[in-house]
Write a structure and sequence with these properties.
flat, about 120 residues, two-stranded antiparallel sheet, alpha+beta
Length: about 120
Amino acid sequence: MCSFVVRARAVCRVPLCAQRFDDLVASLPPGLLPEVNVLLIDAQGMEHEILAGMASVLGGAVSGFAIEAAVVEVSHVPVYAGQRLGPDVDALMRAFGFSCAAHCEPCSHCDRLFTRV
C-alpha cells in the first residue's frame, strides 16, 4: 500500500487510465447509458478540460444525455499551475448553450450553477 502524501509531498505515483467522456460514451453499447440531466464537476483545477472533453454530450448530440444543469467548481484566482479560470469556464459553458444561474459573481473559489438557456 502506498501513502499518498507525507508533509505535503507526494511519496508515490499511481498510474491511471483516462479518456475523454465523449469517447467513453461513444464506446458503450446503445442502451447501456443511464439518462443523465445534471452534472457536478469538482476536479481540482481541471474543470475546463473535462467540460471540453464532453463537447458532444454538453452540445446535445448524444442520445440519453439531456444535460439541463451543471454545478462546476471555478476559481478566479489560480490555485493550480496552468489552471483555466472562471471566465474561461463561463465562456465554454456559454458555447454549449448554458448560462450562469447562481454564484455568477467573481469569486476566489466557488461552485457555479449553469443551466441550459
